[in-house]
Design brief:
Strand order of the largest sheet: 2-3-4-1-5
Largest sheet: 5 strands, parallel
Shape: elongated
Structural class: alpha/beta
Radius of gyration: 27 Å
């Protein structure tokens, strides 16, 4: 499996890492989504305010889609502080020399706070309470003895002066994505939201600035249809680095933490960034795939506890958004045999609002952060792939759960497969492979050839926290699968026997391929173990094997 990595000039990284003054005594901003609190608490802020200024200087109505854990709420809070308090919290940042506007009343709505309602009545109550709480400080007064809240809010908004308020909406789609498995409630919530968005559209003259975030774009919410001048910057190259950290930003702002990580792990600068890049980099959010960023949540968690190594932080928190998990409840993942293959979709599918039941699965996976734009073809199609190893392993866990239909991959009475491959004999490894394969839901996912055998085993191994590499090329060919475990380097050549009487001949073929094509010999490894093995379609297990 090939993972896309981006590189920037190392001499610039080294130069940036010498500038530690910005972060010497500052705390990591882990879990802080309030800009004012972050600044007043002396936490590190990676300065994105030049881009913030670029957006805020105009009378814009803007939408930005990004996966969870990329800092959307912090960005909303940054706009709130700027418009409400001016430059109070922006000392020493780029925007301090650029901004000369006045302050404005700000309405901030976080729709993630109104999800979780079991009926449309409960949702509307929570929604209207949130609207009343947000608009009342600006002078709006609701009289329950008169018309509806939305009608009164409409009348109040009509009387506002032009360019007089700022409206910020975070996670607009949170109540919708949560109900993707309930079409009736989804549509009812969508209709309620549509009424509010239509109200904003009809009174947009009062808006000095409007900014909204989400994960995906749902049609028929009025925001993307009635709000016809809403600018979607989700795939804009100019804002590809608005959320997330570039490699140079990590080096510039987190110098002391990087040094701590080097000391904890015994790595030099180049080695540290190589592993950071492999694990957490590679997200590209622009239509030309020209920019890329690291996931902030993962980087910050790593820097907080570097002694624990390069763990998977994204999947256990932001990597399981409701938008994806609810959708997958109704839609089976594509065949796990295609786990490591790139996907190709129309670029427009990544940027077009859709009905919840018409969303392209690969587009949804991209919006949720599981896939990223690797390249864009001239015909308007985008090539998608996993951004990094962390996400690749997260996706394999989803596929593994699908393959196993809820059954555990490893049982407590057996050693972990990672330990077996690091310390055990080849025979024990094959036994572990057979236990893993036997756990697959064979009726839904039968192994019918060598490719499916390799693909399913690859997914299961990644689900067990290993990182196998498939079709590893050398000058003479490409091996089926290679796995590093501890001090060992395993090389496997798979053959599939439809009938058991084919096994002996196929085993000889696999052995000859390993020898003639010198798989694994070009890599330096303290212990190289090359195994030819044959899977029997009749017995549904590996029946013959040999160490070469």
């Amino acid at each position: 499996m090939e993972i896309l990595y981006f590189r920037c000039p190392w001499d610039r990284i080294q130069e940036a890492m010498t500038n530690e003054t910005k972060s010497m005594l500052k705390a990591l901003p882990l879990g802080t989504s309030n800009f004012s609190a972050l600044r007043q608490g002396n936490e590190i802020y990676v300065d994105k305010t030049r881009l913030v200024y670029k957006l805020a200087q105009s009378r814009g109505k803007i939408f930005l889609a990004r996966p969870r854990r990329f800092g959307k709420s912090l960005l909303i809070s940054t706009f709130e502080s700027l418009f409400k308090n001016g430059l109070r919290d922006f000392g020493g940042l780029d925007i301090e020399k650029l901004w000369d506007d006045k302050t404005y009343p700000v309405v901030r709505l976080d729709f993630s706070k109104i999800k979780g309602q079991a009926s449309i009545e409960l949702f509307n109550q929570a929604f209207y309470d949130a609207l009343q709480e947000a608009f009342t400080p600006l002078g709006f007064t609701y009289d329950p003895n008169r018309t509806s809240l939305l009608a009164q809010l409409d009348t109040w908004t009509q009387n506002l002066s032009d360019n007089s308020i700022v409206v910020l909406i975070d996670e607009y789609d949170a109540p919708l994505t949560e109900k993707m498995d309930n079409p009736t409630l989804f549509n009812a919530i969508r209709d309620s939201l549509s009424q509010f968005f239509s109200l904003l559209k009809s009174n947009e003259g009062c808006l000095r600035f409007f900014f909204m975030t989400g994960i995906t774009k749902f049609s028929n919410t009025s925001i993307f249809s009635a709000f016809n001048n809403l600018e979607d910057i989700s795939l804009d190259e100019g804002f590809g680095e608005l959320l997330g950290y570039t490699e140079e930003e990590i080096a510039e702002y987190f110098g002391p933490y990087l040094q701590k990580a080097q000391d904890s792990l015994g790595l030099n600068q180049s080695e540290l960034f190589s592993q950071l890049r492999e694990q957490y980099d590679g997200f590209s959010f622009d239509r030309r795939a020209a920019t890329h960023v690291y996931c902030p949540w993962s980087v910050l968690n790593f820097l907080k506890r570097p002694q624990e190594g390069f763990q998977n932080y994204w999947y256990t928190s932001g990597g399981q958004p409701t938008v994806l998990m609810k959708f997958l409840g109704k839609h089976v993942l594509s065949e796990p045999i295609g786990y490591s293959e790139n996907k190709v979709v129309r670029l427009s599918d990544l940027n077009t609002s859709r009905q919840y039941d018409e969303i392209n699965l690969d587009a949804l996976l991209t919006q949720a952060g599981y896939l990223t734009i690797r390249s864009v073809m001239k015909n308007g199609y985008a090539v998608l792939g996993y951004p990094n190893q962390e996400v690749s392993m997260s996706m394999a866990q989803l596929y593994s759960d699908e393959l196993l239909s809820g059954k555990p991959l490893e049982r407590p009475e057996y050693p972990l497969i990672t330990d077996i491959m690091a310390e055990g004999a080849a025979e024990e490894v094959i036994e572990a492979f057979n236990r893993a394969v036997s756990a697959i839901d064979y009726h839904r996912y039968p192994i019918t050839d060598g490719a499916s055998c390799r693909a399913y085993l690859q997914v299961l191994l990644i689900g067990a926290a290993m990182m196998p590499h498939v079709e590893v090329h050398n000058a003479l060919g490409r091996s089926d699968m290679e796995v590093y475990a501890g001090r060992r380097h395993w090389v496997f050549e798979f053959k599939y026997a439809k009938t058991d009487d084919q096994a002996e001949g196929l085993l000889r073929q696999a052995q000859e391929q390993l020898k003639a094509r010198r798989y694994g010999l070009s890599k330096s490894a303290q212990e190289l173990i090359r195994v030819a093995l044959v899977f029997s379609g009749q017995q549904r297990q590996f029946v013959d094997w040999n160490v070469v």
